[in-house]
Amino acid sequence: MLKNTLEKPVFFLESVRVVVRCRPFSKKEELVSCENILDIDDKLGQITIRNPKAPPDEPLKVFTFDAVYGWTCTQRDVYDDAVRPLVDSVLYGFNGTIFAYGQTGTGKTHTMEGASSDPEKRGVIPNSFQHIFTQISRTQNQKYLVRSSYLEIYQEEIRDLLCKDNNKKLELKESPDFGVYVKDLSSVVTKNAQEIDIHCKMCLSNIFRCLYFTTCTLLPSTSLV
Ligand SMILES: Nc1ncnc2c1ncn2[C@@H]1O[C@H](COP(=O)(O)OP(=O)(O)OP(=O)(O)O)[C@@H](O)[C@H]1O
Questions:
Q1: Phi/psi of residue 110, each to 5°?
Q2: If pLDDT is split at 50, 70 and 90, which confidence band does 208 have?
Q3: ipTM beyond 0.85?
Q4: CA of 26 relative to ligand 1 center, distance in Å
Q5: Which residues form the Kinesin motor domain (predicted)?
Q6: Mutation test of ligand 1: which of 25, 101, 109 has the most ligand atoms closer than 8 Å to its C-beta?
Q7: Annotated binding-site residue? 70
Q8: Among 59-68, 126-135, 180-189, the range of highest mean pLDDT
Q9: Which of 56, 62, 77, 130 is the 20 to 30 A CA-CA neighbour of 192?
């Protein structure tokens, strides 16, 4: 009997988790002596914000999240804690989305893409590709089909970044069978992380982005026991 090496993932109790990553000051912010107004408590998942212009008796504003990551957190820390369990559950057959949100310059691209040349600086996207294909290569009694799509949502308009004519605006639809989907969005079958990387690089030159996400569909097919 062939052994299934895919471990049952640790599921989060919540179906939606909100985590916050606070980036360090940029050189420019240091040069103009920006003042830190945040206090991060990663054990409690809390961020406390002090309004520097407020009178001293004004209460601090405290916000609680599922997790918070301070400026010393590495790309690997963020991946292992916030993303790895979700990707594991996708490999187990569940749907999962990782969505980066924040105002310009807050670190979405750094967190999601990072610098692909340095393994320590790789972000969520390349790390999840690596994770998915490593796990697939270790699984012996299950076959996977990985399809990748790359799209941009900018000012309410959806563009297919794998399509040469990406000026065509796509529509968001809902079907009783698949749920919400993007009509006519192209997808390519990908066999390894490098192939996805090549597709992403082709797409990146076309991006003028405000928000994006990638989707990977994993379709377990025949189970060989
Ligand atoms: N955790 C971090 N550690 C070190 N540098 C960071 C971190 N997060 C972001 N930066 C740096 O801060 C700058 C802005 O980050 P980034 O480009 O990722 O922001 P963004 O949210 O994607 O902005 P935009 O919406 O304008 O594209 C970059 O120079 C990036 O390298």
A1: -60, -45
A2: very low
A3: yes
A4: 9
A5: 15-225
A6: 109
A7: no
A8: 59-68
A9: 77
Residue 184 zone, left/alpha/beta (φ > 0; ψ -120 to 50; rest): left
Helix pair angle (124-138, 84-91), 10° resolution = 40
| pLDDT given for residue 151 in this prediction | 86
Ligand-binding site membership of 222 (annotated): no
Q: Which residue has the higher pLDDT, 117 or 213?
A: 117
Confidence of residue 77 (pLDDT cuts 50, 70, 90): very high
Cα separation of the two ends of the chain: 6
Query: What is the spatial distance between Cα 170 and Cα 185, in angstroms, rounded to a whole number?
Result: 7
How would you classify the pairing of strands 61-64 and 212-218? unpaired
Mean pLDDT, rounded, for 17-34? 95
Please state, in angstroms and rounded to a whole number, the distance separating the CA atoms of residues 32 and 93: 49
Tokens 């060989």 locate to 224
Which residues does ligand 1 sit against, CB inside 6 Å? 23-24, 26, 102, 104-110
